[in-house]
Amino acid sequence: MRRARVAPFVLFGIAVVSPAFAWGPSDQYGTFGPDDDTISDLYTGLTWQRASTAPSLTQSQAVATCASLALESKTWRLPTMKELLTLAEDATHTVYLDGMDVQIDLDTNAFYDTPSTCFWTSSVYVGPAMQAFTVDFSTGEADLAVLTTPCAARCVSP
Asked: pTM above 0.90?
């Protein structure tokens, strides 16, 4: 999570205090390299797929994609809304992605090339509409989407 820390400095002999933001606890994720396919979240104990799918999957396709994922001999699934929200930062920051500046609410060192779009969860809305919860990492917020809406997926292993 992104935490604000107070960073005092002196300007023209006057002490000024301003917030300095960190992108998240430095100990949230285990050690990872640029070519690693997965990352361990030391806070939740979950293992995450670092790359995301293309943002063109329905919710049922996202479920099937994660169930068929073959990484590190683990069992993969689509995360719940609560699990996926643990990846969201406390505030958005700007990154250069696909040739433009994009607002994103995610640690881009840990999760590279994350599209600024909705991400499916396995949390289905119980009601008359056929909907499931999604998470948008450009805002860090959860929302509902019709099950046929095209979104991306990031898989998790318990």
From this structure: no
Q: What residues are paired with 126 via a beta bridge? A: none
Instruction: Give the CA distances from residue 87 to residues 11, 66, 113, 140, 150, in Å, rounded to whole numbers and listed in that order.
Output: 36, 17, 15, 9, 21
Instruction: Provide the token pair at 144.
Output: 């509902």
CATH number for domain 27-157, candidates 3.10.100, 3.30.70, 3.30.450, 3.30.2000: 3.10.100
pLDDT value, residue 26 = 63
Domain edges within the chain: 27-157
HSE-up of residue 110 (Cα within 13 Å, Cβ side): 25
Could you give the CA distance from residue 44 to residue 117 in angstroms, rounded to a whole number? 24
pLDDT averaged over 10-residue windows placed end to end, the chain, 158 residues:
37 42 61 90 93 92 97 96 85 61 70 85 88 88 93 96
